[in-house]
């Protein structure tokens, strides 16, 4: 089943002592296709990126479960051999809603997702003023997700995230993660770590539970490379800003050029060919594969080319 394929592969990697999963953050079809084209073996659907791309709004809990699940499913459907890990925010409500969210993510083919302990009107983990639910409310979310997974006979990876570090302190954050694992979570995710020493300590204290690392440019956590992350013992590391940052910088540059000069000049690659033209974009999104499939199936739509 498509729903189980990505989850099974992700679980296999989590049990492999030599494997670390490095996933770039993507938020739409094009950023996902670009990540796939350079060979990443896993993708991360960012909730912040979903908010900014689908709604044009900041990451302040404005997305619905349908916004998130639909976007995650589209990304997961581009290549079923590449597991997609997705942000599921707070689960969008109480246990009933969390169970429904879990079902939606499973049906969309998501391999793993993370649930956090902020209040339902949440915000990006690297913004100020986060408010948290109590530990019982948090573990009820995890239990509901684990129950829905079991009821559906699926194996989606549940990642427990806590944002308690800044407001409640390290000990409370670790307590919450251990409680979440006891409630059915497979992976622990401490958001907002502020030093390499703290990163190392978390992995050791939560062993043998696999740990998840979030690398946010401009955030509170020091940026380290995947080799360092592996040496510290992390099993999954995401770079959620990859798609957002690249789109932000490039679109700003091109819009300024068009506004100031009245045109956008072609960019050329190292061989002097135009880079980033319309056919390049279509090709990375599967133009040739689509036309080849049509021909193999006996279609005639692209006999004169595309």
UniProtKB/TrEMBL annotation:
Q: Which GO terms fall under molecular function for this chain's record? A: methylisocitrate lyase activity
Catalyses: (2S,3R)-3-hydroxybutane-1,2,3-tricarboxylate = pyruvate + succinate
Species lineage: Eukaryota, Fungi, Dikarya, Ascomycota, Pezizomycotina
Q: What is this protein called in UniProt?
A: Phosphoenolpyruvate/pyruvate domain-containing protein
């Amino acid at each position: 089943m498509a729903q189980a394929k990505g989850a099974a592969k992700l679980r296999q990697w989590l049990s492999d002592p030599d494997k670390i999963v490095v996933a770039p953050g993507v938020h739409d079809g094009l950023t996902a296709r670009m990540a796939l084209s350079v060979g990443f073996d896993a993708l991360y659907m960012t909730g912040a990126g979903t908010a900014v791309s689908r709604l044009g709004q900041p990451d302040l809990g404005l997305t619905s479960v349908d916004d998130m699940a639909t976007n995650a499913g589209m990304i997961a459907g581009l290549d079923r051999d590449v597991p997609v890990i997705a942000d599921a925010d707070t689960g969008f409500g109480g246990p009933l809603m969390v169970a429904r969210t879990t079902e939606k993510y499973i049906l969309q083919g998501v391999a793993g997702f993370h649930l956090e302990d902020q209040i339902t009107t949440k915000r990006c983990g690297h913004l100020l003023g986060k408010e948290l639910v109590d530990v019982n409310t948090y573990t009820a979310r995890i239990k509901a997700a684990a129950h829905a997974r079991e009821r559906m006979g699926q194996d989606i990876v549940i990642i427990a995230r806590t944002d308690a570090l800044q407001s409640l302190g390290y000990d409370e954050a670790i307590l919450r993660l251990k409680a979440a694992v006891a409630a059915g979570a497979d992976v622990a995710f401490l958001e907002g770590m502020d030093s390499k020493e703290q990163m190392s300590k978390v992995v050791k204290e939560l062993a043998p539970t696999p740990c998840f690392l979030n690398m946010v440019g401009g955030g509170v956590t020091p940026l380290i490379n995947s080799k360092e992350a592996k040496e510290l013992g992390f099993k999954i590391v995401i770079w959620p800003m990859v798609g957002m940052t690249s789109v932000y910088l490039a679109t700003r540059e091109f819009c300024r050029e068009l506004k100031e000069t009245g045109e956008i000049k072609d960019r050329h690659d190292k061989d002097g060919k135009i880079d980033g033209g319309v056919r390049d974009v279509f090709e990375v999104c599967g133009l040739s594969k689509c036309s080849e499939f049509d021909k193999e199936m006996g279609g005639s739509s692209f006999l004169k080319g595309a």
